[in-house]
Amino acid sequence: MSDRHDHATAPIRLRDYAPPAWRVESIELSFELGIDTTEVTARLHLRGDASRPLRLDGEGLELLAIALDEQPLDAGAWRYADGVLEVDGVSDGSVLTTRVRTHPAANTALEGLYLSGSREAGFLLTQCEAEGFRHITFFPDRPDVLTRYTVTLQADRARFPVLLAGGNPDGAGDLPDGRHWARFVDPHPKPCYLFALVAGRLEKIERDYLTGEGRTVKLVIWSEANVIDSCHYAMDALERCMRWDEQAYGRHYDLDVFHVVATHDFNMGAMENKGLNIFNAKYLLADPDTTTDDEYKAVEAVVAHEYFHNWSGNRVTCRDWFQLSLKEGLTVFREQQFSADMNSTALKRIEDVALLRRAQFPEDAGPLAHPVRPAEYREINNFYTATVYEKGSELVRMLAGKLGPEGFRRGMDRYFERNDGRAATIEDFLAALGDANDLDLMPYLAWYGQAGTPRLRARGHFDAGARRYTLTLSQHAQAHADLPEKPPLPIPVKLALFDRDGRMLALRMDGQTVGHEAVVVLDRDEQTFAFDEIERSPVPSLLRGFSAPVILECDYAPADLALLLTHDPDGFNRWEAGQQLAALAFDDCRHGGQIALQAWCNALAQLFADPTLDPALLADLLTPPGEVELAEREQEVDPAQIHALRQQLQKQLAETIGAFALAQRLAALEVAGPLQLDAVAKAQRRLKRRVLELLALIDAPTAQARADAQYRRAQGMTDRLAALSVLVRSDAASAADALADFRRRHADNPLALDKWFAVQAQLPGERALERVRSLESDPAFTLKNPNRARALLGTFASGNPSGFHRADGAGYQLLAERLVALDALNPQIAARLATAFNGWQRLEPVRRDAARRVLSALAEKPELSRNLAEIVAGVLK
Ligand code: ARG
Ligand code: ZN
C-alpha cells in the first residue's frame, strides 16, 4: 500500500496554500461496477494555464487507458508515481480521459469504493472525505476544485438492482446481458470529497417533502431488507430538521431527491455527500427493542448534522482542509441548536459540555493538542477531532452569543449569500458575520489559531461601604510549544449574582441597570468589572451556559456552590455548580475532608426529595464528573485510585440519600405497559438507571434483585441495557445468565451485539483485560468491522480507565498488538483507537514507564500507516 513507509514526508502547511493551477469545469464519470473489479472512466473538462503542469491525485489505481482530447497519449506524455499522475501538453479547455481499475472487495480501509457486508449479499458504496476520491479516479483531490458531475453507473441488474449517485436522476435503462444503467446529474458544482455512489440490493422507504420554496423533494432512506423497518424514526427526524433549517436559517433543500443509505461498515458516524448521505447504521437505524433513548437522540442529531451540511459544507465548502472546522464546527453548532429546540436546552447543553470536557479538554491538554484551525498535518484523517468539531462549535457559539439571535442570523445570511458555490475560509466566516453587524470580529481569529484550553481566573471583592462588588478576571494560556506568546483572547463571560437566599440580583454596571444576567468580555490579560448597589456579599455565578470554552478557576466556598446547585433557575448552571462542587467533594474523599463532600451530598439529597425537578435533570445532577475528567485535575494520574475515590464519592451520596429512599424512588419509576418514547418516559428511565446504580453501591443484593427483574421485564433497550450493566459491574451472580440471554436474543443484530461487547469492556479494574481477551474469541468479534472494533477495543481503551491502565502494562500491550493488526486492515480506525494513549505522560511513574515502553516499541515498527505513525509519534513526543 503506497501510504506506508513514508512517515518522514514533510507535513502539509496552511501557510503554503496556493490556488489550484488547473480547475475541472465538469466531469463525466462512468462506472462498470463489480465486486472484485470496477472500471472507472473519467472525462475531465480542464481549465487552466498551459504553462503549468497538470498534476492529478490517484492512489493505488491501475491505469488502463489515457487520452487527451480524444487522442490516446504516448507513454512519454504522462508519468504516474507516488500518488500523482502528471500529464504533458494539456491546454485550457482540454478533455482528459482516463480509465482505471479498482478492487472494491479487497478494500478493507473503507476509503474510496468498497464492499459493505458479504460478497454474496453486500452492496458497494463510496467514502471520499477527506481524500478517498483519489482511490477511485485521477482528479485534483482538494476541496477548492468545484466541478459539475454527470455520473453513469452500469452493473448487472440482478446483483445490483439499485444504482444511486449524488444529484438528480437523469435516466436509466437496460443493457444487453442482464445489465442496466442509471445516470445522475448534479447541477451544483462540488468538490470531489462530496461525490458518492451506492449499488446493490437495498430496500427503501420514501416520502414527499414540500420545501418552503415550493419544491417537492423525494426523501428516500435505503437499507438492507432486514432493517428497513428501523428507518422510520430517521425519516421523521429528517423531515423535522429540514423544516427547522428553513425556519431557523432560511435554508431550503436544493435537489429533487435526497437519498440516505445505512451501512454497517463505516469509518465514522455519517457523511454528507451531496444528495446521497451515507450513514453508519448506528446513527440511522432505530427500533424500540434494540435502540436506547440516548441512541434515539443521537440518530436525530446525526441526521440533522448531515442534512445541515447541505448548506454549511456543501453549498459553502472549505478552501482547504485546514478550514475543516468552518463546516464541522458550524454544523455541530447548528445541530446543537436544533437538538435543543427539539428536546431540552439545558439537557443538551449538559451533554455537550460534558462531552467537551471528556473528549476535547484532554486532547487540548496533551501532545496531540492542535488549534481548531491546525497549522499543519501529515494525515488529514487524523484531524477529525473533538477540537475541530466540539471546540469549533463552541467558537461559533461565542460568536452567536456576541451577535445575539438577530445579528447572528443576519451574519449567517450574509455568509451563505456571499460564499454560495465557493470554497471559503474561517476569515470569510468572521468577515461575513462582522460585516453584517458593523463589527470587527477578527480578534476571534486568535481562538482558531491557538491550541490549549485557556484558564480563566476570577476573584471577587465586596466593599460594604461602597455597596460595590468588583470582579477581577484574568486569562492564562496553557504553555504549549506551538505558540510561545499567545495574545489575549476575547472571552465572553456570562454572569449573574445571587444573594444568600439564592435570588438573582439586578445588575447595575456603570450607572445602568443591565438585567439579571450580563455578558462581560475579557479581552485583555486582566480586567475588573464593578457592580453597584449590592447590599451584601453576593455569590457570583460565572460563565453561565458555559459562555466560553475555558477552565474556570475560582475559589468558591462549597456552600456557595451548593447554593447555586439548589437555587439557580437554569438547569445547566445548576449542573455546572454541582460538577464543581463534586470535584471538591472528590478531593475531600482523597484527603478525608468533609465540608465539600457534605455540601454536595446534602444538596443533592435535598433535590432528590423535590418532586418538581425534571427527572432527567436530576439524573444528571446525581452524576459526578467522570474518571477521565477527574484525571485532568491531577498532576500524577493513578486511574485505579481515581476509580476507587469516585466510587467512594458516589457511595457517600447514595448513603446520604439513603437506601430506602432510593429503593422507593426506583419502585415509583417502574412503569407497566408498553414502551413509551416520549420525553417524560425517557426522563424517568434516565433517572431510574442512575438510582439503580447508586443503590448498587450501598445495597447490592436489593439492587441486583431489582436489576434482575428489570432485565427480565424490560420493554426496551434502555432499561434492558441499564439492568445488564448494573448486573455486570456489580458482579451479580446472575450476570452471566443475563449476558448469555442478551447474546442469544440479539445474535442477529450487530448494533445490539456491539452494546453487549461494550458493556463488558467497561468492567472496572483488572478483570477487564481477561474479559476483553475472551471476547476477542467470540465468533462475532472481528477487527474488520469498525463498529465492532470500537465497541470492544475502543470502549476498553478509551472508556474504561481503570481497566485499560493496569499497572503491569498488559492493557497497553494488548492495545498495541491489536493496533498493528488493525492498521494493516484499516489505518483510519487504528489511528483513532491509538489516541487512547494520549496523556500517558501524566500517569504515575509505574504506568508511565509501561506506557512508554509499549509506545516506543510500537513507534519503531516499520510497517505502520501514515495515519497510525502520526498519532503514535505525536502521542510519544
Ligand atoms: N464530514 C463527516 C461529518 O459529517 C465526517 C467525515 C469524516 N471523515 C474522515 N475521514 N474522518 O462529520
Ligand atoms: Zn460533519
TrEMBL record:
InterPro entries: Aminopeptidase_N-like_N, Aminopeptidase_N-like_N_sf, PepN_Ig-like_sf, Peptidase_M1, Peptidase_M1_dom, Peptidase_M1_pepN, Peptidase_M1_pepN_C, Peptidase_M1_pepN_C_sf
Phylogenetic classification of the source organism: Bacteria, Pseudomonadati, Pseudomonadota, Gammaproteobacteria, Lysobacterales
Alphabetized UniProt keyword annotations: Aminopeptidase, Hydrolase, Metal-binding, Metalloprotease, Protease, Zinc
Domain annotation Aminopeptidase N-like N-terminal: ranges: 108-194
PANTHER family linked to this entry: PUROMYCIN-SENSITIVE AMINOPEPTIDASE
Protein name: Aminopeptidase N
GO terms of molecular function: aminopeptidase activity
Gene3D superfamilies, sorted: 2.60.40.1840, 3.30.2010.30, Neutral Protease Domain 2, Peptidase M1, alanyl aminopeptidase, C-terminal domain, tricorn interacting facor f3 domain
CDD domains linked to this entry: M1_APN
Zinc in keyword set: yes
EC number: 3.4.11.2
Family membership noted in the UniProt record: Belongs to the peptidase M1 family.
Catalytic activity: Release of an N-terminal amino acid, Xaa-|-Yaa- from a peptide, amide or arylamide. Xaa is preferably Ala, but may be most amino acids including Pro (slow action). When a terminal hydrophobic residue is followed by a prolyl residue, the two may be released as an intact Xaa-Pro dipeptide
Residues annotated as domain Peptidase M1 alanyl aminopeptidase C-terminal: 559-876
Presence of keyword RNA-binding: no
Residue ranges of every copy of the Peptidase M1 membrane alanine aminopeptidase domain listed in the record: 233-441
Top-rank lineage group of the source organism: Bacteria
Start and end residues of each Peptidase M1 alanyl aminopeptidase Ig-like fold domain: 452-554
Cofactor(s) needed by this chain: Zn(2+)
